[in-house]
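Worked Example 4.2. Consider the chain below.
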Amino acid sequence: MPWSNQTGGGSNGSGGPWGSGKKNDGPKNQGPWGGGQNGGGDNTPDLEDLIRRSQDRLKQVLPGGGGSGGLGGTNPVLIGFAALAILGFVLYNFFTFRVEPEQQGVVLRFGEMHRTTQPGLNFRLPYPIETVYTPSVTRVNRVDVGMRDNGPSSTAIRDVPEESLMLTGDENIVDVDFAVFWVINNASDYLFNVKDADATVKAVAESAMREVVGSSDIQPILTQARQITEAAVQEVMQATMDSYKSGILITQVQLLKVDPPSQVIDAFRDVQAARADAERSQNEAQAYLNGILPRARGEAARILENAAAYREQTIAEADGQADRFISIYEQYVLAPEVTRKRMFLETMEKVYAGTNKVIIEENAGSGVVPYLPLNELNSQNKRVTQ
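Applying the procedure from the previous section yields the following structure tokens:
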């Protein structure tokens, strides 16, 4: 019978369904489900072995369990509790599984992806029908590229030149050490599409960094473009990991060290100083240009405006004189003698208006001696010329 003792517990083998009447077949101080011998070491299934051990323990605790009267002397309540305990143990260990809060459950049915589960207690079919994996999806993983730790007992960092030395777009070499942080965002893709996640992330990170550095000049990478470089590398990495269907999310790319190679760092600093001097000279020249150019343009505009005004003035004067000559000519044609005398008087008026005059009446007589003050005339001429 299924509940009989197959291990031959005692000399009296005619006991009831719970085995022989001997109470001390199993070893002392065992747990409630037994830890005794298997009776010959045969590889029986786990469930059958569990039932056999439970049978041995019940023979020890139940009154009359080993008598020849079968179940007549047993307590039905104890038998019911024992059956429920066995059933609960079997259901808990073979039909349920627990997923921790930081994990996600992935259930395979006959080796094929079937479903994913959330944290908590979940139901499953026993092995080998269904198999459960519980990867941690909230843990942030880190991968270092270009450097290595010497060990947990040492704080020194060892550089790895074959990973850190990269060629820039302007044909310079730069030493780049950086770290990549990633998490699992799709547990099923992570389990079945990636064999070695750390190695894959590291290879993709190095390739993406070389691509971004190779398309940039060395100066921005060393100075103000560090954040731009980190964002570009993260974008390239995420696109690559998505194309692999790896189930990995790149959360951050952090540049730890960006320097020229140690062999040429002194020469690089000299070059940087020379570039700074050249930039300063260019800035000074540009400042001088910005100061002199507007003044020159203003002077040129003023000269052009004066020339235009002089042209307009000359043209206007010429037009006025031409009109005046035409009007005088018309008057001359009508009255030549009067016009001639008028022109003579106007001309003499203009001549005498700017000279010193001495008026002598006709009746003054011949006793008047002409006086010519040369010194005063000379001084007046000088004032006029000035």
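Confidence is low (pLDDT under 50) at residues 1-45, 65-73. Residues 358 and 370 are 9 Å apart (CA to CA). Compare this with Example 4.1 before moving on.
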